[in-house]
Fold each of these.
Amino acid sequence: MANRSDNFNVSQSLGTPSDGGSAWSQTSGTWSSDGTQAKEGGGGAQRVCVLDAASAVGDTQVTVPNRGLDNGICWRLADDSNYILGAYNAAGTMKIFKKVAGSFTQLGITATITAANGDVLKGSVDASNNHTFYQNGMSRVTATDAAGSTNTKHGLRANGDTTVRFDDFSFTDTSGGGGATPIRRYSSLNGLSAVGPFFADPLAFAIA
Amino acid sequence: MKKFYWSKIEQVTEGGMTFYRHRFQAYPDIEYKGGEIKVDAGGVPTEKGLLILVAAKDHTPFEADDGLLAIPVGQDGLKVKLGAIDTPTRLDFRSRLADFGHDATDIEALTDNTKSFMQTVNDLGQRNNPAFDVNNFDLDES
């Protein structure tokens, strides 16, 4: 179990990160750093690059200095066909997906957001398989799903866009406890606000 | 007001990405209670829909959506037997299940007149979540 991080301050094809730990795995695509930020240069669909943290529970976080059109983070990755995806679309949506055997299935709600360069994305998952996808510290989407619950690789995702840039990646292992408490966001159509741990127990949910 | 819906599982392509979702996920920012879609080892959903509970002041847009099948009774009416509701409503419920792709045998099992809606809701809920129990499944409204 380990925390991981990379500031991307070495110009290279993504290899050894700044934390000195095991190297990035370029699961799909061609990933590099220009000495300040990371990018995917191939421009193909659904490209991911991950670090192994030897823990399936924790917070995967990155700053997006240039959001491009479609980017995100991934966690609990086994291979290019199996992982959890936090998709951040600059047109204004955030979603969580599970990718199982190469097929994506959406988890939780579709959240509309205002995207901006410099946004900080975080995907948290706890030992009970509660996933939360944050933008700048605000919970946007939550879900509970056990897919990939033993997978320990976490990282970056680009989707058909070479203009996306990433900075200050980190994975914080929370398997010892102390993970963030999921906080609900609003519900716009019916005017209800929603606050409280969501799906910590999938059969107990409160709108307040 | 809270309503149960059988939310149709569909495959869509948005922004160049093809994925499975249930119909209610097309409505952004609206909370619901419902768990997640179960998939098989190949990543393909195993069920026709996902049971969800929605709290909203206005259900009109959802009831007009072909991908959302409202359970004909509210939470307070779950003990009502399907045979006790009016025939047009019951037949429409069966017809909509067929539209979702349920075969005749499955529809018969889900809508047997001797069943209560509670049994039907539990049956639908347990398809994606075997631990589902309608008695422990609720939204609090303010």
Amino acid sequence: MVLCGASIIGFTVSVLLDVVTRTIGHPWLWLQQVTTGFFAYGVFVGMAAATRRNDHLYLTEITRRLSGGMRTAFEMFARLVVLAVAVAMVWFGYKNFLLDLGSFRMPSMIPLGVYTISVPASGVLIGLFALEQLANGWRRGFEGPEDRDAFMVTPE
Amino acid sequence: MSNGLILGLMALLFLGLGYLGVPVAFALMAGVLAATALTPVSFPSIIGQMFHGIDSEALLAVPFFLLVGELMTSAEITQRMIVLSQTLVGHFRGGLAQVITLFSMFFAGISGSSTADVAVLSRTIAHDMDREGYDRAFTAALIASASTMANLIPPSIMAVVYGATGGVSIGGLFLGGVVPGVLIGIGLMIYSHFFGPVGVKRSRATLPEIGSAARRAALPLIIPIIIMGGILTGWFTPTEAGMVAVIYIVAVLIPLLRREHIRKLPGDFVYAGMLYAIPLAAVAGASAFGWMLAYLRGPDVVAGWIAAYAGTSAIKIMFLLAALFVIVGDFVDAVPAIIIFMPIIIRLTELGDINPVHMGVVIVTTLVFGLITPPYGLSLLVASKFVGVDFGRAMRRSLPLYVVFFAAITFTVLFPKVVLWLPKQFLPESVGCFKNPSGTGYLCP
């Protein structure tokens, strides 16, 4: 959560500096790359944080009507799907990262891999959080997405 | 396996897993990964699409417009706009219902988030409506319906996503959204006046009272001028305009109007930091899904079906697309829906020789309707939960309000000249006009 806040503050400041430096006639062209970096990291770290807090977008029409063992089974299945996607993000995202180390963003010449590492990093966090939820849910039962505060439903 | 079968499997997996409780972003990715296994496409390139989907400067506007809404709500500055709305329309029949709609129009000019609008209204006016004997189901239905204007009247998050993924002018979409947004607002006010609960009759506010309320709300109401003024004068991109609005709230509004809120600002940023990641995570998944859809030639198939019925008639194409998106919007969130179906929209826009801004406004107007339709009517779900009424009751009470949305969609499709009038006046190049080579002014197709 704190990292998400840091990223939004980071790219707010970098967009502000971008506008200011451009207005005074001395633009720092690399600022746009910094902004994109903060933004991408914010999205993928936020994706992991939202997984832990059950704050993603959901279409839970079927599970919300279930209870007991059936509900537990569906909740476990949902976490296993998340875990599988997280594993794919880690493994294939890492392969992309290695490949992207050879590509560079102009004009700063930052390797593209510096940005795309956010995907496998997010996958690692998502996987850990999914495992945590599976372990906790197995022992104490699952908290469904509809149990959370309504205001945390998607911002749209 | 044929492309059609793979497409069907991918869509079935997404919807099936989604309705079984898998978050939308992961349900999308699970569907795409399963489809990838059946095609020659490599897994790393599909995972790479997640990153490329959000690697767009235009999408940076999304967190800023969310942050604006969050800061205004959290600092309770919106209360001043509610008071202004009360002085302007509180004396009408169904006064508080009218206040909800008018406030939503004001708030829509500040925030691009329907959910923030629902949160503000549910925490404030909904309690007053309860005390005055309004049916809670009506309150929830009206709040949800009025909140949809946040995604039409600029700034709009849906317009940002549409513009960023479809390569359409975001400024043009902002201006084009004004007509359907105001139409929905007027429609809701007319409905509340003639068919809504009577409420408590209030006396008309005096001119000094209106003046005082307007003075107190003046500083917050500068935000739409900053955002649209900056974009229209070419000073800022939509992203930069959102950032300037954030700085204005943090540096001017909160210190002047709610000084005690300053220490809570870090919390607002942290909260907004996660809030923006939620729709953008779905954007990342939907980008991979949309890419695979295009790879499997899904746009050709759907465009073929629609073209078989509509030919190249722009109006028929738009009505069929609107019908498709009314159905899609019932089941899928608007942001991923825009990205998934963008290749199809682009193909049909070309087929019918439709102005891309006009098509974008039609699609966004149709998708905001999905915010109040079951089973996935997000605004209605949130409003019914906040107001404390069963979703089914709120949904039944919102059924008559559907007429307003159908009328707005129909008007938007049938009258492109009205919809595109504002973009043509202020951003002519956004709608395909070009500078007159022989002098001043623009030539428009």
